[in-house]
Amino acid sequence: ADKEAYPVLLGNGNKLEGGDVEGTDRHYAVWEDPFPKPSYLFCIVAGNLGSVSSSYTTVPSGREVHLEVYSEPENVSKLGHALESLKKSMKWDEDTFGLEYDLDVYNVVAVNDFNMGAMENKGLNVFNTAYCLADPKSATDSDYERIESVIGHEYFHNWTGNRVTCRDWFQLTLKEGLTVYRDQEFSGDMMQSHAVKRIEDVSSLRGRQFAEDAGPMSHPVRPDSYISMDNFYTATVYSKGAEVVRMYRTLLGKDGFRKGMDLYFERHDGDAVTCDDFLSAMGDANGVDISQFLRWYQTNGTPTVKYSSKYDDESKTFYLTLSQESNSDEPLLIPVSVGLLDKESGEEVVATKVLELKEKEQTFEFDGLNGDVLPSMLRGFSAPVKLVRAEADASEEEDLAFLAARDTDGFNRWEAGQKLYTSLIFQTLDGNHEESKTLDYVEEAFRSRI
Question: How would DSSP label each residue in 41-85?
Answer without folding.
Answer: G--EEEE--EEEEEEEE-TTT--EEEEEEEE-GGGGGG-HHHHHH
